[in-house]
Write the structure tokens for this entry.
Amino acid sequence: MIIETERLLIRPWRFGDAPRVLDIQSRMEVIKWLGETHPVPMQNLTQARERIARYNARSQQPPLGCWAIEVRETGVVAGSVLLLKLPKAEHGEVEIGWHLHPDSWGHGVATEAAAVVLAHALASGLPEVLALTHVGNLPSQGVMRRIGMEPLGVVDKWYDGPSLVFRADHRSAQRSVDSSGTPETPRGSVRGESGTLPDVPERDPGEAQAHDHDRIPHEEVRPLRRR
Ligand SMILES: CC(C)(COP(=O)(O)OP(=O)(O)OC[C@H]1O[C@@H](n2cnc3c(N)ncnc32)[C@H](O)[C@@H]1OP(=O)(O)O)[C@@H](O)C(=O)NCCC(=O)NCCS
């Protein structure tokens, strides 16, 4: 899959990106948030190439995948955006995620990439997309909010330890598209297909609600308490 946005190209990883993958994955300030209980910094280019092969293997079942985010103007790869089945998924739950090199933080790159990938996921037929984050990862929660995802609360499933879980479905996507302010309607086009990203289809609210209760039992979600 290749998606173009105003500033970005969402594209498959290439083996030539290995030095950048190594630079990103060797940084504790990035990998400490990626869900490993004991994250280990990447050591060398061989590991980076293996990681790229894994990213591409995970992109073989559309709409799932793990893609490079390239800044069109400079050609610099800012980081990754992904759409994958959650670890230990019981009902095929899919999460969206992102991580950028610190030199690319603070420019709205993650938000721009995530918004189009989320729109593509829902337009491709996924009924909902989740995003999980460490409760202390405020920058990532900012991305989730800006792309119109709704916070549900804290869960202990899927990853070790508590995670704050956000969700988007066709209703939240529609609300996001309808709203005049942030987040903006994602603008992008899938290369090789004519036109822009498909419109978000209308859903029967009753159907969506029944689905919500199926997915995450309420007793598994608790409110976030900040001190
Ligand atoms: C999570 C992560 C991708 C967020 O990066 P980010 O730069 O804060 O997010 P965005 O790319 O959406 O940029 C938003 C910031 O850019 C600013 N910005 C500048 N130009 C912008 C634009 N055109 N559009 C939107 N925001 C813009 C925003 O004001 C915001 O800054 P603020 O947080 O100071 O208010 C980054 O912190 C990261 O890679 N962390 C390590 C890995 C990680 O935590 N991954 C997520 C695991 S759940």
Remarks:
- The pocket of coenzyme A is lined by residues 30, 33-34, 79, 97-100, 105-111, 133, 137, 139-140, 142-143 (CB under 6 Å).
- The chain has seven helices and nine strands.
- The two ends are 42 Å apart (CA to CA).
